[in-house]
Task: inverse folding
């Protein structure tokens, strides 16, 4: 009994953390270092070195799972019935998602705090022409090409379905279908990010005010949205921009991380194939992916419609 | 990947780090952010193919060495040398840009292109070699302003031939700026940190060299044998190893933080003028680093160290649920701590207080990269704690041995359970707030920017939403330790186990709705303040229950006075004082007067040192035999306790007095009327600090010379005493089953 939970040591966490530290050191020195504290560009080298270390640690970590027949290892025996029969890994995933809930709660409450305190631009137009403390929601800018946000929403929702189908296929011992569905999920997630990047670019570089605009009237169809967006809408333009880009950006980062995980799943499915016995990891990924989806269901109305 | 290639990979990586470190100082900066892009736009565009020539001399007159905030200066730029100009033709051109302040054209010879910040000549100005313009100094007096100038001396003929240009740099500093010359002078903490680094390097050279000579080994062999020692620690995923690492790192940082604390005390020994001992700016970074170190790198790691070591033993599990994740959590600690301390190597550590209040933390006043390092390191530490919380909650809910029901867990395990719950809900919020702060500082977002309509108080809400649960995160485990020690040494099960559990859970829940008591003076809604005042006072109820339960446990017991127990008794006294001052501060009218004064400092040191640190010192005496198989020396332990207890009170009790009399915290100097008490405090603090060296000595001494402990030297009841000391590799050879005394085998 004593050696089936043998501790295989691993250097991966150590390397990973050194990488993270160097990444931060490089970033800080490159942006705030140097003699006059405006950044010392020589340090981008350290930043990239850190990234390399971080990735090295990450790959070493994943390597161990890669070499095993399944990711599960032996599951730890549970003597107390708590939450029925779910595996310990799945349980940990749920708790991780709880911390993730706190992450987005923070971002959304910061947003709502500002949103609630500042009158909307179009409801109070005469008073706040050109004055900063008037909220001109990102939604006004997006409205003319909302279609991409809508496509994105459906892409994400659909990808939640394809993950479930992948799991279902694995359970039915259908490795081909599993791989296919995982790839479909990847494609949908990638579509999401591409459309998002495009949309960001449009907003950043767009001009949403010009001389022909009537200062008392918001005219979205003619791109007369707010004087402060004359030169586009970016994260340092206004609080509207800051909250929009940071919140949707954090969500996008979660999608991105999901895509990396999917790459692994697809490769692993190709190599060993998930089946009736080993499909736990797909399920775990599915939980995460659904969560990212649910967050979008909050982010979308908050930032794209409201 | 097999073991060997793993090793090679990691070796290679470490080598490249060393390389990177050696390359650090060579990174060259572009001083004013002038890019080629700007060059193309400047007056020299059509002449850049010519050579840069030292014949051309550029002067910028009337620039003050020290500027006054927002004052307008009229500067004159002159170029001389270079080709002789044709009488009626063009003579020259220029380009000037400053990294702070604003340039302004005052005549028809110069202009500023739209959307740009530099000045240059226009058609008219082409006919001169001297131009005047205004420069409006920045609003901050702590900037070092750099002017970058390109001057072009032309002959007026068509084409570029015969035209020469040169580049000049000028600077002016605010009265409070750290100028380049100052960099040569090291601050006190910097000196200490450098000295420490040098010491470590010298020591390792000496030790390695000594071994090479004495054992006649090659350098390679010595390194290899050390590597063999170190490698298991770098790669371990065993909860006992990781626990040990956590505890050692925690106490290591405790001593570094302690030295910073003593620096603070020496600064306050008497009223100081700027730079008398520490400059005011250095003082700011000293108390910032002290607070940050003590809470995030000393108290929490010590707690997690004990939790790592003991929780699996106490609930009868072989390890944590995710051992690798656990290793990741640990390694984020020293690396994150290093990032926080990087400030000392780059001109000055973070100086915005452990609370990092905005707009101070986003503003001009925090110009050194130290604050950015502080933010970055804290993000890493936050990630570490989040992962730890996930790991422990999973472990404790899923991996208890047969018979170990929730309500049969030892109270230390319960305290960690509540703690990780608090962590789970609070630390992600802080980490995200830090990321927002970093975005503001580095990427120009506006979350806390007042000018853009942002609200700096939002930071306080996010911080204290985390910050108050955080103080319970560090005190609840201490409650757990006290409960274990007091019950063991009273030879009685703890009085009112169930009420203890509920009290901790209640404290945990209440802690989320009381954070506003840190914000009474922010102009918060009176109703909000009122609710917060009442709920804060409510915390006294469960806390009181715990204190009375400890007393009741002792009342019927036969007390054995060993060092751990004596520490526990002392803790109950000092913690109670701290709890009472907390209730006093919870009252709004009182707090409005005492807020940000020394009374608050006294309060939280009584709960943090008198509560957490004392309890965990007791914990070291209590569990050291389990971890090493040796008992710590009693006599040294007693001396350590006596000195610590007496001089802790001597140092921190008078802070109540100076606080009530009106001495504010976080100032590098004070009114002369407080001098006497402050001298007394400083002397006591130094003795308290030195008393801790006895503890260090005891830990080292007893490791070799201590009495053998056996499995259960104190006759403890919890499961960790059922295994060998030190515990075997897998903690339990066989998963134990916990039974009540009455149950049949
Ligand atoms: C009986 C329970 C407690 C009550 C009622 C209480 C109340 C308070 C109040 C009202 C303040 C704000 C004072 C001010 O800034 O004006 C405060 C500050 C503080 N408390 Fe407590 N407290 C209690 C227990 C604790 C414990 C157990 C700890 C930590 C182990 C702690 C650590 C702190 C710290 C660190 C501060 C200062 C934060 C800062 O501004 O830097 N408190 N406490
Ligand atoms: Cu509090």
Result:
């Amino acid at each position: 009994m004593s050696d089936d939970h043998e501790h295989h040591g691993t250097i991966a966490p150590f390397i990973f953390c050194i990488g993270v530290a160097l990444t931060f050191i490089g970033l800080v020195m490159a942006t705030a270092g140097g003699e006059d504290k405006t950044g010392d560009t020589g340090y981008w080298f350290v930043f990239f070195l850190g990234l390399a270390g971080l990735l090295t640690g990450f790959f070493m970590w994943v390597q161990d799972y890669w070499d095993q027949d399944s990711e599960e290892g032996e599951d730890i025996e549970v003597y107390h019935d708590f939450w029925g029969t779910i595996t310990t890994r799945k349980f940990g995933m749920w708790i991780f998602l709880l911390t993730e809930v706190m992450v987005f709660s923070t971002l959304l409450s910061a947003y709502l705090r500002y949103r609630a305190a500042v009158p909307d631009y179009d409801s109070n137009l005469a008073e706040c022409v050109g004055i900063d403390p008037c909220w001109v929601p990102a939604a006004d800018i997006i409205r003319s090409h909302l279609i991409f946000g809508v496509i994105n929403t459906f892409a994400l929702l659909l990808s939640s379905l394809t993950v479930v189908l992948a799991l279902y296929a694995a359970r039915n011992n259908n490795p081909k279908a599993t791989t296919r569905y995982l790839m479909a999920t990847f494609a949908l997630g990638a579509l999401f990010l591409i459309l998002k990047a495009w949309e960001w670019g449009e907003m950043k570089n767009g001009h949403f005010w010009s001389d022909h605009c009537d200062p008392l009237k918001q005219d979205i169809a003619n791109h007369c949205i707010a004087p402060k967006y004359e030169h586009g809408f970016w994260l340092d333009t206004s609080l509207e921009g800051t909250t929009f880009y940071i919140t949707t950006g954090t969500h996008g980062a979660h999608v991105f991380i999901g895509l990396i995980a999917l790459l692994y799943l697809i490769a692993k499915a190709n190599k060993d194939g998930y089946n009736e016995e080993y499909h736990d990891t797909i399920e775990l990924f599915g939980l995460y992916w659904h969560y990212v989806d649910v967050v979008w269901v909050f982010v979308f109305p908050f930032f794209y419609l409201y | 990947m097999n073991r060997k290639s793993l090793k090679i990979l990691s070796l290679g990586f470490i080598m490249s780090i060393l390389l990177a470190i050696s390359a650090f100082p060579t990174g060259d900066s572009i001083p004013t952010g002038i890019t080629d892009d700007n060059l193309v736009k400047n007056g020299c565009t059509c002449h850049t193919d010519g050579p840069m020539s030292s014949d051309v001399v550029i002067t910028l007159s009337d620039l003050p060495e020290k500027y006054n905030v927002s004052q307008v200066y009229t500067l004159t730029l002159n170029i001389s040398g270079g080709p002789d100009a044709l009488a009626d033709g063009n003579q020259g051109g220029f380009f000037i840009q400053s990294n702070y302040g604003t340039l302004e054209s005052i005549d028809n010879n110069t202009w500023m292109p739209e959307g740009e910040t530099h000045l240059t000549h226009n058609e008219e100005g082409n006919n001169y070699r001297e131009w005047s313009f205004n420069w409006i100094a920045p609003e901050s007096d702590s900037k070092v302003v750099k002017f970058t100038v390109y001057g072009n001396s032309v002959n007026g003929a068509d084409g570029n031939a015969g035209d020469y240009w040169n580049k000049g740099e000028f600077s002016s500093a605010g009265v409070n700026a750290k100028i380049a010359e100052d960099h040569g002078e090291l601050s006190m903490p910097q000196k200490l940190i450098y000295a420490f680094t040098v010491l470590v390097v010298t020591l390792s050279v000496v030790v390695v060299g000594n071994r090479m000579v004495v054992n006649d080994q090659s350098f390679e062999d010595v390194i290899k044998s050390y590597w063999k020692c170190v490698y298991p620690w770098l790669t371990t995923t065993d909860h006992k190893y990781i626990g040990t690492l956590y505890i050692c790192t925690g106490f290591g940082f405790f001593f570094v933080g302690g030295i910073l604390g003593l620096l603070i005390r020496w600064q306050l020994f008497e009223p100081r003028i700027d730079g008398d001992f520490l400059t005011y700016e250095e003082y700011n970074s000293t108390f910032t680093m002290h607070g940050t170190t003590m809470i995030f790198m000393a108290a929490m790691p010590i707690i997690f160290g004990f939790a790592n070591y003991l929780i699996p033993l106490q609930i009868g599990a072989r390890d944590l649920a995710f051992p690798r994740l656990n290793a990741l959590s640990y390694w984020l600690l020293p690396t994150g701590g290093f990032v926080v301390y990087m400030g000392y190597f780059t001109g000055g550590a973070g100086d915005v207080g452990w609370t990092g209040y905005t707009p101070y933390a986003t503003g001009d006043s925090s110009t050194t990269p130290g604050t950015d390092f502080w933010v970055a390191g804290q993000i890493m530490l936050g990630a570490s704690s989040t992962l730890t919380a996930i790991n422990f909650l999973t472990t404790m809910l899923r991996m208890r041995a047969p018979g170990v029901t929730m309500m049969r867990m030892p109270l230390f395990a319960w305290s960690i359970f509540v703690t990780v719950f608090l962590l789970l809900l609070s630390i992600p919020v802080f980490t995200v707030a830090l990321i927002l702060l970093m975005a503001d500082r580095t990427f120009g977002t506006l979350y806390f920017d007042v000018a853009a309509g942002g609200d700096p108080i939002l930071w306080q809400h996010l911080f204290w939403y985390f910050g108050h649960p955080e103080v319970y995160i560090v005190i609840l485990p201490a409650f757990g330790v006290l409960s274990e020690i007091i019950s063991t040494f009273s030879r009685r099960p703890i009085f009112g186990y169930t009420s203890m559990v509920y009290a901790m859970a209640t404290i945990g829940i209440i802690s989320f709705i009381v954070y506003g008591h840190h914000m009474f003076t922010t102009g918060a809604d009176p109703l909000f303040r009122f609710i917060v005042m009442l709920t804060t006072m409510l915390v006294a109820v469960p806390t009181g229950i715990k204190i009375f339960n400890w007393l009741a446990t002792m009342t019927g017991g036969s007390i054995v006075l060993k060092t751990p127990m004596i520490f526990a008794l002392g803790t109950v006294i000092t913690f109670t004082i701290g709890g009472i001052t907390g209730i006093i501060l919870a009252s709004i009218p009182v707090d409005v007067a005492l807020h940000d004064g020394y009374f608050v400092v006294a309060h939280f040191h009584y709960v943090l040192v008198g509560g957490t640190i004392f309890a965990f010192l007791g914990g070291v005496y209590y569990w050291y035999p389990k971890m090493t198989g040796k008992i710590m020396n009693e006599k040294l332990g007693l001396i350590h306790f006596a000195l610590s207890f007496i001089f802790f009170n001597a140092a921190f009790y008078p802070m109540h007095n100076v606080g009530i009399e009106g001495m504010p915290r976080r100032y590098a100097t004070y009114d002369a009327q407080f001098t006497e008490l402050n001298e007394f405090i400083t002397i006591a603090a130094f003795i308290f600090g030195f008393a801790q060296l006895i503890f260090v000595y005891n830990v080292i001494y007893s490791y070799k010379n201590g009495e053998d402990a056996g499995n259960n030297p104190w006759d403890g009841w919890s499961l960790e005493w059922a295994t060998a000391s030190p515990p075997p590799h897998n903690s339990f050879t066989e998963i134990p089953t916990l039974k009540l005394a009455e149950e049949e085998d």
The pocket of protoporphyrin IX containing FE (ligand 1) is lined by residues B 355, 471, 474-475, 517-518, 536, 539-540, 543, 579, 582-583, 585-586, 591, 594-595, 600, 603-604, 607-608, 611-612 (CB under 6 Å). DSSP finds eight helices and no strands in chain A. The first helix of chain A runs from residue 12 to 32.
